[in-house]
Amino acid sequence: MKKLWFVYALLIGMFLVYVLNYKLQQANTTDPWETAGLRGNIEDTYVMVTFQSGIDYWKSVLKGFEDAAEELNISVEYHGSTQHNANEQMTVLEQVIAKKPAGIAISAVNSKLLTATINKAVESGIPVVLFDSGAPDSKAYSFLGTDNYDAGIEAARKMAELTGAKGAVAIITTPDQHNHQERTDGFRDTIRTDYPAMQLIAVKDGRGDQVASRAATEQILSQYPQLAGIFATESNGGIGVAEAVEAHKGNSNSPKIISFDTDKGTLDLVKEGKIAATMAQGTWNMGYWSLMELFHLHRDLAADPSAYANHKPLPVPDLVDTGIDVVTRANVDSYYAK
Amino acid sequence: MKKLWFVYALLIGMFLVYVLNYKLQQANTTDPWETAGLRGNIEDTYVMVTFQSGIDYWKSVLKGFEDAAEELNISVEYHGSTQHNANEQMTVLEQVIAKKPAGIAISAVNSKLLTATINKAVESGIPVVLFDSGAPDSKAYSFLGTDNYDAGIEAARKMAELTGAKGAVAIITTPDQHNHQERTDGFRDTIRTDYPAMQLIAVKDGRGDQVASRAATEQILSQYPQLAGIFATESNGGIGVAEAVEAHKGNSNSPKIISFDTDKGTLDLVKEGKIAATMAQGTWNMGYWSLMELFHLHRDLAADPSAYANHKPLPVPDLVDTGIDVVTRANVDSYYAK
């Protein structure tokens, strides 16, 4: 009898093992890894390369890049030159290329000086896209960034709305930077064409600097106390402009200020009502869609390294305009970094 | 003793159940449906809407749309007006809206007449993007298509390469269509600015028609027998131009022909060497990335229908330039429909 009970116990145990093991296998055979959705390999590392890598501006781009990586089950790294320096960025890029990543998204500190190194990456089979600051003559597959002329148009339209489309306006900009020149041109052309009761009376160099922009603004305000508005094409300048307008209160008309970008300092001034509006670039989109494009390029090139050399049409667009949003007191809370 | 064996058996059985059940739960909690990859619901239907829905041109766009659907595990439908008719397309769009799809990608036959119906879709919570032919004043979230001015620039560069950058050239176009005017402008401006030894001697209306384009070309050839090249801004015209040049062989110089798009008739003439090059639009990209954008918009709006009304920045770019490729005898085989 002892032995019989033992056999029963064994049979019951084996049956349970069998049943549960079967269930476990069922769960494994419907493994969706192979068929379901856009999904990469967590061991593939994609790299984002910037310059002045510590500044706030890149945070939202990197967030987009990381969000896409999480969705696609791939890995990312962030590198960049600490300074606004082409040689340093070239060295960083060389080091990244040496590790043979699955893809590189880079914002070129200098389009001409970086082109050769970018081409080296492409020629060695690494997919490369440019974001924010491009290198149009390089072999990179795509560019994702702001249409700065269009951003100037949007700023002019907002200025017209803020000023009742009349009066004198001025621009504080950084004339030697191409993207700032484009913002200036878009603003100027729109005022000239669409708003005959507005006059652009001054375009001053603020050197991308708070103090210089403040000084330039004070000069304009003393000459034109009835100024209706000022457009600052970058955010350090915008803060300087706000300081100058604050200091001149009472002596002048308190012109409406439109600034650029969404660093904390600028957003705080929007919230306080000292800056009427700021132009937000699609930074999250730059990062997110850069990685989405690299993922597709990598997949093609992994299957056939000579795909594009053999004239296969590219599976990604040439150029992505990541858009511009106007941030005011009404929606400023959505733009603080999460 | 009997009872003791029974207790042992029960304990062994329960222990095994516990262990295996634990393993099973482990397998379930790493359920990848929730975390892995970009993946939608096969019951969500996204709709592509065109006009002249039967023409070859849309095939590659639809292929891109379908390829994206397969990758994302979502469903698609194709609708469109059979004619080049805004009222018919409006009716089709109304019917699509009534079925409350997960998203709509539409190419507007007439940007002004379609705007109200597009806005109705957006206002009812359906994400809408435009491709190929936009509606800039509508509330659609994005536009994906060719930069036609840029396509004209590329055509001019190719023409310079084919003609040794010298001699007289002409354009056969459809002046009342805006995208064709842009192609003409890009070509004209580039010849004027970059190639001083080339002269644009005629821009003629080919009415998007093979016979009219042939007649226009014959007229030009009889006047300028030494013509070096002709750019046709659309493909019916390109075939007419090729016929005229073929008929004038011997009397004239056999000018190089650059055409537009990649329908079979045009590709065959490229293969035969009668058309030197044709400008291929990024049609697959239009379809693929339209659906990729709609998928992201739908996910946001499903989670929070007022997301964008409450100023959440859009998760998709404003504008996607799907690019242009130059197709010649060397790479023509890659462009036949698969």
TrEMBL record, chains A, B:
Would I find Iron among this entry's keywords?
no
Give one Pfam family.
Peripla_BP_4
- Gene3D superfamilies per UniProt: 3.40.50.2300
Please tell me where this protein is predominantly located: other
Q: What is this protein called?
A: Substrate-binding domain-containing protein
Q: Which organism is it from?
A: Paenibacillus monticola
**UniProt entry tagged with the keyword Signal:** yes
Task: Give me the Gene Ontology terms describing cellular component.
Answer: cell envelope
One GO MF annotation is: carbohydrate binding
Bilayer-spanning residue ranges:
none
The family classification in the record reads: Belongs to the bacterial solute-binding protein 2 family.
Span of domain Periplasmic binding protein: 48-295
Q: Which UniProt keywords apply?
A: Signal
Subcellular localization(s) per the UniProt record: Cell envelope
